[in-house]
Design goal:
The protein is α+β, with helices and mostly antiparallel strands. It has a domain at about 60-110 and about 120-205. It is built from two helices and eleven strands; from the N terminus they run ααβββββββββββ. It has helices spanning about 10-15, 20-75; strands spanning about 85-90, 95, 95-100, 100-105, 120-130, 135-140, 150-165, 170, 175, 185-195, 200-205. A hairpin with a 2-residue loop joins strand 5 and strand 6 (about 135-140). About 20% of the residues are buried. It is found in: Cell inner membrane.
């Protein structure tokens, strides 16, 4: 019998028998890289979707708050003959951010309740701070009722709440009907909210009609 025993396999013949350890390691490394890229893309899309949903909710809350303020300011009611009626704006700040307080009597919308109720409501807006975060609180009570007002957060995560009153050709940041027994000609509300890395101002201007 000619030749050597056992017969020697060539490099090509050895390769047909399976993968080498190096080839397996390279394949696993590529699989890990591809999986990491897929997971990263998935979580990026997920975070973008969550931010979009949060932004949409914030815009709805913002529109609702500004619309409520406009309607209440349009319906502001004051008469010098009744000491319970008032319109008060105080200029404050928290951490250097505007944090005005607003207190007014406004005409309430028609009530569906069976019990008789006054159509005048005492409303107060005030900025509260908790853990260096600002929120706008609102409390309302029937002017002639005995129910104690209960404050609740009208809008969370704000960056500022500024109330300005226009009268005699200028805007001022304080008003008190005990000192100036009349309503301002116009009232401007500026709400500042976080918009990504920046802040954005949204405003509404109202003209009290029941002067």
């Amino acid at each position: 019998m000619s030749g050597t025993w056992p017969p020697r396999m060539t490099r090509t013949e050895r390769g047909n028998g399976g993968f080498t350890l190096l080839e397996v390691l390279v394949a696993m490394l590529l699989l890990v890289i591809i999986a990491g890229a897929l997971y990263s893309s998935y979580f990026t899309v997920l975070r973008a979707r969550e931010r979009a949903e949060e932004g949409g909710e914030q815009r709805r809350e913002l529109r609702g708050t500004l619309d409520l303020l406009r309607r209440e300011l349009d319906g502001a009611f004051y008469r010098t003959s009744d000491k319970r009626l008032r319109f008060v704006v105080n200029d404050r700040d928290i951490f250097g951010k505007p944090a005005s307080t607003l207190e007014l009597v406004t005409v309430a919308p028609p009530s569906a309740e069976e019990r008789p109720a006054s159509d005048l409501v005492l409303v107060k807006y005030e900025v509260k701070e908790k853990e260096k975060r600002l929120s706008l609180n609102r409390e309302a009570t029937d002017l002639f009722g005995s129910m104690k007002p209960i404050p609740y957060p009208q809008m969370d995560e704000i960056e500022g709440f500024l109330v300005e009153c226009y009268d005699s050709g200028k805007w001022v940041r304080t008003w008190n009907t005990e000192l100036s027994p009349k309503l301002p000609e116009r009232v401007r509300i500026i709400l500042t909210v976080r918009d990504g890395e920046n802040t954005a101002d949204y405003s509404v201007t109202a003209k009290p009609r029941l002067r």
